[in-house]
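This follows on from our talk about sequence and fold. Go ahead and set the record down below:
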Amino acid sequence: MSLDYFVELLGNVPSFKGLSSMQLKAIVMSSEKIIFHPEQSIIRKNEFGNKGFLIISGSAQLVDGPILSQQSEILGPGTFIGEMAMLMHAEYGSTIISRAELKALQISYDVLQKVMAQDLGIAEHFADYMHERFLQFTSQLQHIEKMFDDGIPEGEIDENFHKKGAQQEQDRFVPFSFQNIPSPSRTSRPH
C-alpha cells in the first residue's frame, strides 16, 4: 500500500481533517504499521492507553462498550479507534477486537508530540480540534441538564444523549497539554 493511500485514509478521519498532505505524511511516516491477528484485542475497555489505530485493511468488532455506529458494530478500513487516548492519554471506553488479520497504522501520543514539535501548525490544529470537541461536549451536557430540569423520562435521556454523538465522550480524560513539546528547530505553518 502506498503512502498516498495511508494519507488519504488518515485525511478522512475527522480529527485529522484540515491538515495538509505534507502534515499527514509526516504523521504517517512517524507512525508504526502493525498487524493484529484474528480475535486479538486492539483496545480494551477500562485500560489506560496512549495510542490510536487507523484500520488500513481487515475488520474489527466492538465487543464491549457503547455502540459506535447505529448501522453496525463492524469496523473497517478508514475507521479510527482510540482517538482520545492518542490525543491526551485516556482510558479506553470500549473493547475492540480484530475479526480477521487486520493491518493498522498505530499513532501514539509520543508520535504526535514529535510531529507537533516539528510543525506548530499541527499542534494548533489539534488544539483547535480539542477546543471544538470540548464545546460540543459542554453543549451536550447542557442539553441533558435541561432534559432533567424539564422532567424528560429517563429512557429518553440516554437515547437522546447517544443520538448527539456523546458516546465518544465516555472515555475518562487526562488534561491535554503542549508543555512537553520541545521548542521546534523549524516550524511550518499552513497559510
Q: What stands out?
A: The helical segments are 3-11, 21-30, 83-88, 109-118, 120-150, 154-163. Confidence is low (pLDDT under 50) at residues 163-191.
